[in-house]
Design a protein that fits this description.
This protein has helices at residues 23-32, 35-57, 107-119, 165-175, 181-188; strands spanning 10-13, 18-21, 65-73, 81-86, 90-95, 100-104, 139-147, 150-157. By secondary structure, the chain is α+β, with helices and mostly antiparallel strands.
Amino acid sequence: MDGTFVWCKRVYDGTSGHATKAGFRAILCAGFYNVESAMKLSRLFLALLIVAACAAARSRPERPWRIEVATSGGITGSGIGTFAIDSDGKIHVRQMNGGECTYDATGGELERIETLLGNARPETWRESYVPENSCCDRIEYALTIDEAGEVTGTRWLDGPPPAPKDLAALAEAMVGGEKSIRAQSAERCR
């Protein structure tokens, strides 16, 4: 040790009333608590703080955006339709029978999709969650997200939802349960 931090080499012992040598503490103090290490730790902490802030800041997707889920397969081979929504609140549906309709999303629908898209991390998704053997009249879903010109997408089969939770939530909102765009379009596209 170079003796840079002499004050670390002796420790006051309250029980005996005097300073004692603290060999291990001196090594610890000189080895870890020097100015250079503190600067490195400060830089690392600042970098982690910036990364965390940037990750948390993406609560809204970049506009304009568009999400589309196109389906294929099934018994007919033509899927169950195509369902899309854009940042202007327009929902476009192409039904199984070839009919098309466009309508405005409610404020709640648009907010729900926009929140899910803001929380989604499509750059972490695999290109496909379709297994090698996609046997037997299953519906295939192809999700495409266009966020301010940056296009990403993935595919999966019906049955269990895709692995990432953010993708499963977006898929549920688009083509899943009774509040999904697919289910709501059955009423609105009559």
